[in-house]
Amino acid sequence: MPGWDLLLTDVHLATMAEGAAAYGIVEDGAIAISSGNIAWLGAQSELPAAESRETRSLEGRWLTPALIDCHTHLVFAGNRAAEFEQRLRGDSYQDIARAGGGIMSTVNATRAASDDELRSAATARLDSLTREGVATVEIKSGYGLNVETELRMLEVVRALAASSGLSIRSTFLGAHAIPGEYKGKSGEYIDLVCDQMLPAAHEAQLADAVDAYCESIAFSTDEVARVFETAKSLGIPVKLHADQLTDGGGAALAASFGALSADHLEFTSNEGVTALAEAGSAAVLLPGAFLTLGETQLPPIDALRDSAVRIAIATDCNPGTSPICSLRAVMNLASSLFHLTPEECLAGVTRNAAHALGLEHDRGTLEVGKRADIAAWDIGHPRELSYWMGLNQLSELLIAGLAAGRPSGA
Ligand SMILES: [Zn+2]
What we know:
Elements: E1 3-14, E2 25-34, E3 37-43, E4 51-65, E5 67-69, H1 81-88, H2 93-98, H3 103-112, H4 115-130, E6 134-140, H5 147-164, E7 167-175, H6 186-203, E8 209-214, H7 221-234, E9 239-242, H8 250-256, E10 261-264, H9 270-279, E11 282-285, H10 287-292, H11 301-306, E12 311-313, H12 327-338, H13 342-348, H14 351-356, E13 374-377, H15 384-387, E14 394-399, E15 402-405
Parallel strand pairs: 1-4, 5-6, 6-7, 7-8, 8-9, 9-10, 10-11, 11-12
Antiparallel strand pairs: 1-2, 2-3, 4-13, 13-14, 14-15
The structure holds zinc ion.
């Protein structure tokens, strides 16, 4: 007789398994966990005879894969609330930049902050995500923009992984913006990224992936290609901030390097979508930044659907363009702004978000053999996860089969 560590009974499952009909729903189900992985799941009436060290009834709650936030910048110091207020009072971007605002204000604050300050500010944001069922988070560097602070940011990300119990993927984003000291010399800055920053991050095993910001106001496709060539030579997968404000060919560039994902994509052309489909790269949509910037150009949702590109969604948590620490809120925004269905939104923060991080082999769906990263919800149907905003229905979160948080008792 098989032996399990934990058996959860009286549950409804939304497995989100690939190819399954409507959310992969199994009503009146049960799920068994052994050594941190899912050992069995199905209709409770078909539960095989087995011994379990612990058995619990969840009294009709719904289980989904734990959520995955696959694009964040949540390690930074300070915030830009004053700038937000200035803008709403009518100051121009130029006024704000002259007064020291914009991304460089976050870079300066991050360079000046201690590791402890960075860690504790980021922990509060991570806690907010976890309270809503997020078990896996990607965090980028990109507010250091010098060798020392970029490495320090990535070390803080690793420290957060150790202290939080969450699964945290670390992405090197040295090519996020051109720092003030390299103004007008972006090529020299890319030299620094390729010759020093990225090799040092790799040497210290701090980068699970490499990202860059390909945009008219940031780095050109040629500059990004140099960063990606370096990443490729070091064997690190890539992803890209692409086509957010203009169609700069970013999606096609990302696809040509077999990127895990291309992110934003508001201005991506049909050719870019086709390239993503052929490369198997995920499309990560970021409705929080779309909302904050008051954008009107929608990402090419129909073309992405028609080409069967995997669509993920993420908070893009950052102090300038997406000060959002709620993946549930972003699911709602993806429906209301981008017209994704609630099922597409849930796939976007589970199965497809796992793809965007290269983790689809062990999470993102409820299936035998995958990690028991499971969120339990007080809901009547999984469509509610995209419908409500600000109502936290998480009952409990398991990460690799262990309790990670019970918000009601916290
Ligand atoms: Zn971003």
